[in-house]
Write a structure and sequence with these properties.
heterodimer, A: 406 residues, alpha+beta, two-stranded antiparallel ribbon, 11 strands, elongated, B: 240 residues, alpha/beta, Rossmann fold, 6-stranded mixed beta sheet, 6 helices, binds adenosine-5'-diphosphate, binds magnesium ion
Chain lengths: 406, 240
């Protein structure tokens, strides 16, 4: 029989109260954990998008919708391929890399697939004009960012998240996203026929979790040919230097290409970032509420519990329990509550976040482990703050006052 | 002597501001091995005296010494320690913890001086055996009769090998035959184990179990132990 056994035994002796006692704190923490679980999945989704985009400036035709960065180039009107040359010739500082694209929706075996034409890296660097500009040999790391280290620390180690640069691609070859490969039942080495042409599947790309998974990537010349859009592009992706962007690179690009729409990734994912910020604010507001309401509820419970236990507290005092020990006993119970409320709230919140986030927001949500210690910390703070005063009063209960009532 | 009370007063201040002098200038020595019986009408200050001696209540004025320890000005930690090591309480209403078994009730008291659960249990079992409740050790207080509950309380009072038992109307809630049983147990503790016992009682026959007797009236001693060491043939003498 130690303090711990005593607290534990007493707690189960009054089970019904136990449930109501930890209800508020559990639910409060569940709400916060739920919100945080969803929003961190959402933040991660933004991060993946940012990273997958590879490019941070997108040149689109005027009529293109930018609701979804990935889909922005699909079915958009087109503009002439010379625009690429114009950018290169202007030798704007801060343009590190660029990649022209043409995306069209095509029917393959009765299925709707997005076909994206790209220019493989080897051909980009081979273009005499571009080579002369000294532009293409550079990588983002070398030319743009403040330092390599800083860049690495921002990078995503998970290679799944990195858009692969396609080095070489012949005009009768294609790369295929995993979803597209699955729906068309093709493997590397197999063939797909698009329009009148046959393409050899050189590679099935690793899964990225984006619309890229459902695309087929072929040489831009082939896509232009198939779609009858010779010399046309639907987008130019530009890797721009962050500093240059803030120094007005966008404005300069707009001067060069007046009849296009030029956006940065920030503008496109900003809606989602907005939502995340809102969720942050909600969970912060909730944190304040739960601190107050949870604290009051624990305090209330503890006070009722102490009153109910006056007699036994008197007994323990009689046996030689000091004020301090009684105080510790009540607080220990508050900590046990915190443990239960913290773990329970984390479990419920995570489960709810995963269910709601998946069904409502369509996010791929996994438990956020760091929230567990945070839940416990929060629950302990609430619980101890709430129980401190009742515990103090409990420790002042004297046997002789109790005996008098008997 | 074991306890020395000098001019002890205890004044309670009621909520409405009324003052009650529960102990009024008590001067009293209690010897090692004494079995002191305290009688007196209800409200005369008997329980207050017991709590004051037991380190649960500080007097408003006066001094109480247990050996060299001044109970009147010791802090809470000191007094708690004193209660744990020297005092065993037996109360009219038993004061067992309702959600603990007989065995655990005794163990709680042991726990303050013996951290090892196994040893606590051994001690508890031995004590319950001594009061004849070994077979009831897993029962909760509500499953025990009044007499059995009081025996658990006696076992608990002995948990820390105290030198003093303070009993406040220990037989007040018991049938006469059970009462006799409890009194006999206390008698044995005094006789064979040499424990000092202070027992408050209403029972007319309870007097016969003590070695000395005082009577309280309005918080004052109306018969000092020095004046009369209580025996069967020496009648209680009212003073003042
Ligand atoms: N905790 C208390 N608060 C106020 N008055 C008390 C308290 N305890 C006892 N008293 C008063 O002190 C007097 C003595 O009480 P008590 O020691 O319990 O007497 P007894 O045990 O002889 O019946 C009574 O008048 C009682 O009302
Ligand atoms: Mg009394």
């Amino acid at each position: 029989m130690n303090l711990w056994n005593l607290v534990w035994t007493e707690m189960w002796h009054r089970k019904a109260r136990l449930v109501s006692g930890i209800m508020t704190i559990t639910l409060g923490i569940a709400v916060i954990v739920g919100i945080r679980t969803v929003s961190s999945a959402s933040e991660e989704a933004v991060a993946i998008k940012l990273d997958n985009l590879g490019a941070n400036i997108m040149v689109l035709p005027l009529g293109a919708s930018t609701d979804d960065y990935y889909a922005a180039d699909i079915d958009a009107p087109t503009f002439p391929q010379e625009y690429v040359d114009r950018i290169v010739q202007s030798a704007l500082p801060g343009v590190d890399n660029l990649s022209p694209k043409l995306s069209r929706r095509v029917q393959i075996d009765g299925k709707n697939i997005v076909l994206t034409g790209i220019l493989p890296a080897s051909e980009i660097t081979a273009k005499p004009l571009w080579q002369a500009s000294g532009l293409m040999g550079n990588t983002l790391d070398a030319s743009c960012a403040p330092s390599n280290e800083a860049n690495q620390s921002l990078g995503y180690a998970d290679e799944r998240l990195q858009r692969k640069v396609i080095d070489t691609l012949r005009e009768d070859e294609c790369y295929i996203g995993p979803l597209a490969a699955a729906s068309l039942h093709v493997r590397p080495g197999g063939f797909v026929s698009i329009g009148d042409e046959q393409f050899k599947v050189t590679k099935v790309l690793p899964e990225t979790g984006t619309v890229d998974d459902g695309r087929i990537f072929a040489h831009i010349n082939s896509v232009q040919r198939i779609s009858g859009l010779d010399g046309q592009l639907s987008a130019i992706e530009i890797m721009g230097c962050c500093n240059a962007i803030s120094d007005g690179l966008l404005g300069k690009l707009r001067n060069i290409l007046p009849d296009t729409r030029i956006t940065t990734i920030g503008q496109i994912v900003s809606t989602q970032i907005e939502t995340n910020r809102l969720m942050d604010n909600i969970s912060f507001a909730f944190l304040i509420i739960i601190l107050i309401v949870g604290g009051i509820s624990i305090g209330n419970y503890t006070w009722a519990n102490v009153n109910e236990r006056k007699r036994e507290i008197g007994i323990l005092r009689m046996l030689g329990f000091s004020h301090k020990r009684i105080y510790a006993m009540i607080l220990l119970k508050a900590i046990v509550f915190a443990g239960m409320g913290g773990i329970g709230g984390y479990a419920i919140g995570t489960a709810a976040g995963m269910m709601l986030g998946t069904s409502l927001a369509g996010l791929d949500i996994s438990p956020v482990l760091i929230l567990l210690p945070m839940s416990l910390l929060l629950a302990s703070t609430i619980s101890l703050a709430g129980a401190a005063l009742p515990a103090r009063l409990a420790s002042r209960i004297e046997p002789y006052t109790i005996m008098q009532e008997d | 002597m074991l306890f020395r009370l000098q001019n002890v007063r205890k004044e309670y201040i009621h909520q409405r501001g009324a003052r009650v002098m529960a102990l009024d200038n008590i001067t009293l020595d209690i010897e090692q091995g004494e079995f002191l019986v305290v009688t007196g009408p209800s409200g005369s200050g008997k329980s207050t005296l017991l709590f004051t001696i037991g380190g649960l209540l500080r007097p408003s004025s006066g001094t109480i010494h247990f050996g060299t320890l001044g109970l009147h000005d010791a802090d809470d930690a000191r007094l708690s320690d004193f209660r744990r090591t020297h005092i065993g309480y037996v109360m009219q209403n038993f004061f067992l913890v309702p959600y603990l078994t007989a065995e655990e009730n005794v163990m709680v008291a042991c726990a303050l001086s013996e951290p090892e659960v196994k040893l606590q249990r051994e001690k508890s079992v031995a004590l319950l055996d001594r009061v004849g409740l070994l077979d009831r050790r897993h029962h909760h207080p509500r499953e025990l009769s009044a007499g059995q509950q009081q025996r658990v309380a006696i076992a608990r009072a002995l948990a820390n090998d105290p030198s003093v038992i303070l009993a406040d109307e220990p037989t007040g809630n018991l049938d006469p035959s059970l009462a006799n049983d409890i009194l006999t147990q206390l008698r044995v503790l005094n006789d064979t184990d040499g424990l000092t016992i202070v027992m408050v009682t209403h029972s007319p026959t309870a007097n016969t179990f003590g070695t000395s007797h005082i009577r309280l009236h309005d918080g004052a001693i109306s018969l000092t132990p020095d004046a009369v060491r209580w025996t069967e043939d020496l009648p209680v003498r009212e003073v003042g």
